[in-house]
Amino acid sequence: MDVATLRKILELERKRGYEDGAVIGGLDRYLQRWGSEFPDSLLPASYASLDKRQRGEWLKKALHWLDGMEVEGQRVPAPSAKMDKNLDEPITTIKGISTNLAIKFRRLGVQTVCDLLYFFPRRHIDYSKRKTIAELEVGKEQTIVATVWQAQEATLGGRRSTEAIVGDETGNMRVVWFNQPYLAKKLRTNSQLVLSGRVSLFRGLKVFLSPEHEPLVSENLTHTGRLIPLYPLTEGLSPRVVRKLVKETVELWAPHLPDFLPEGVRSRAQLLDLPEAIKQAHYPKNEALKDSARKRLAFDELFLIQLGVLSRRRDWREGGEANPIKPEGEVLEAFLCSLPFALTRAQQRALEEILADLAKVRPMSRLLQGEVGSGKTVVATAALLATVASGYQGAFMAPTEILAEQHFPNISALLARAGREEKVEGSLRTFSSILPHPINMALLIGSMKQNEKERVHRAIAEGEVDIVVGTHALIQQDVDFERLGLAIVDEQHRFGVMQRSALRQKGGSPHLLVMTATPIPRSLALTLYGDLDLSVIDELPPGRQQISTRLLEPEERDKAYHFLRQQVEKGRQGFIICPLIEESEAIEAKAATNEYERLSRDVFPDLRLGLVHGRLKSSEKEEVMRRFRGGELDILVATPVVEVGIDVPNATVMLIEGADRFGLAQLHQFRGRVGRGEQQSYCILVAESPSPEGRERLSLLERTQDGFALAEEDLRLRGPGEFFGTRQSGLPDLKMAKLSDIALLEIARREAIRLFKEDPDLSRLEHQPLAREVARLWQDGIGGVEA
Residue 596: how many CB atoms within 10 A of its CB? Predict the structure, then answer.
C-alpha cells in the first residue's frame, strides 16, 4: 500500500468536511483497490452512504491505523508494483540533501524523491555549440563563455539595472539586465560567466539585453557536446548544487520508476518508456532525444488530464437527476425587453443553449466563453431569473470578494430594470413586478460581520433568498440551500475544479454553468474542458470602444510615463504590469516591490501608487484593489500572476513592461482591464528585447482587438508565454506539455477515450498503476481553492 498517498487523500477528505470529494469517483471506488490490505473491521461497507458524523469517525479510525503502521515501520507493497525503492520518501533520504536544503527545495514544490525526478529544467544550454564574441550574429539566440571585467548598477530608461562589460579572446561586449540591480553585486570581476540569449545592436555595437546567465562551472563542462539543464532556483540553491543532486538522483532512482502507461498506448503513440524519458529530460544525449523525452512526458500529463476529465463528466452526469427548469416564456421576454439594448446573435444563441439544458433532467454542465464586455453577465442573469421563475434558488460564485461585490450591484441593476427595487436591507435586496412574487437577492462574502452572515445563511436555508451572489464561501459547510437549482461559477480557472462535488452536496444535482473571459480556441476547450458543453459569445455588442494599443521601445518609456501622468491629471487611473519572471514568485515579487519603490520615488512622487503581487495575503490584495476601485489610488503596480479583473471604469491606461515575455492572449486579457468606462482607453506595450517573430506578434496585438483570433495565433506561433496559465487554471500543473501541442492533445484525447470505454474505473490489474497516477495528479493538482 502506498501509505503516503492514502494518508494524503484521507487528510484532504477530512479537510474538505467529509464531502466525499477528495478523489475522483469518491472514496468507495478508491478504497476498493486497497480492500485486501485493510482489516475487515476498518473497511466501510459504503463510505458514500454514511452521514458526515459517521464519515468523521471512520476517517479518525483509518488515520489512527495508518499511524500505527508508520510507527511499526511496516510497508505494505503497492498493488501496482513491488518497488525496490519508495519514490514517495522525503528528499532527505537522498544522499547530500540535508533538512536545511530540503526546506529550500520545498519552496520550489519539491518534497519527495518523485518530485525531484519530475523537477524539470526550464531550458538547456548547448555548451558544444557556443560562439566567441566575434562570431555572434545579431537577432539570434546564442551562447558565449566570457570573463566579467566589470559590473555595476546603472539607471537605464529610468530603472535601476545592472550593466556589465565581458570579454573573451576575440573581444569585449556590453551586457544589460533591466530592473535587476541586485546582479551587480553577484557578478564578480574576473569570474567566468555563461551567457545565453538574443544579441541586439545598440549604437552599432553588439549587446546582450537581459540574457540568461550563470557562473561557469568547470566540472559540468567536461562533458563536451552535452546539453546542460538550467533549473528553477530559489534563494540558497545554486545551479551547481541543483544540477549535481538532480543528476545523482536521476541515475540512482529513475530506473525504479514503474511505467504506468499501458504498453498498447505507449506503442501506438510511439513513446519512450518512462525511466528513459526522465533521464533524457534532464541530461539528454542530443536534441532529438530531448524532444522524444518531452513528447512522452507531455503526453503523460495530457493523457492523465483527459482520464480525469472523462471521469468527472461521467460522475457529474450519473450522480443524480436535476430539477428541470422551464420558466413561462413571457418572464424572460419581459426581462429582455427591459434591457436598454438588444442581445447580440451570439448572446441569443448562448442563452438558447443554456435554457435547453436547464429544461432537462440531466444536470447541465456547460462552459460559457465570452470576452470582457461581451455580455456574459446578462445571459447569466437571464438563466438565474429562469431558475427563480421555476421555483428554485440560484447561486452565483466569483473567485474573489471584490469581484462578488462588483457582480452584486450589476445583477441588481439588471433586475431593477425589469421590476422595481422595493427594499434594501444590509446585504439583502428585494425586487418586485418581475414575477408574481418578489425576488430576494443576497450577497454572502467572508468579510461580512458574523451576525449578518448568519442571517443570510438562515434566509438561504429557509428558501427566503432566491439568488445569492458570493465567493467560494457559498459551498462551505455551514451554507445550506433549500432548493438549489442552478450554480454559476465565474472565472473557472480561479476555482478548484473538484469543488463542483461540494456543490452537489448543497442541492442534490444542481445545473452548473461555468463562465470564463479567457478566449480558448475550440480545439483546446474540448480537451481541457471535455467534461463541459461549450457555448461561445464570439461577438461584442455594437459601439464597444476599441482600445488604442501601441508598442514602444525601452528608451521610449519616459513617453509612456508622461502620457500616464497626463491621464491621471485628467482624473483617470492606470495599471502598470511588471515583467514576468519565470524563476520564482519570490523573485517576481521582489522585482515588483523594487519597481514600485522606484516609480513612487523617482517617476510619480506626487501621485498615489498601490502594489499587488502574488506574495501578499488575500486580504492585503483585496484591500489594495478596493482602494484602487474606490479612486484612492491613481496607479496600480501589479505582477502578472495577480487577478486584476476588477471593473474600474475610470482606469484608461494599461502599461505592460516586458511585453515580449507574455503570450498574446494574456496581453489581450490585460488590455481588457481598461476601456470599461466611457473614456477612450489605451494599452502601451514596452518590449525589452523582442525577436523579429516577437515584434510581429506584438504588432498583431496593435492591429486586432479579437481575443479569439489572438488565441489561435498564440497557438500557431507557439510563443514563449502560454496564453492560458496553468498556475491559475484549476487543472493539474503542466510541467512539460504546452497547450500549443494541439496534435499531441488530440492523440492523448483519442487514447484516453479508447481506454475509458474499455475500463472506465481503471479496475483491471494492468491499469492499477495508471489509476494511482490519475488519483495522484488530480488530487495534487486541484486540491484547493485559490481565492
Answer: 21
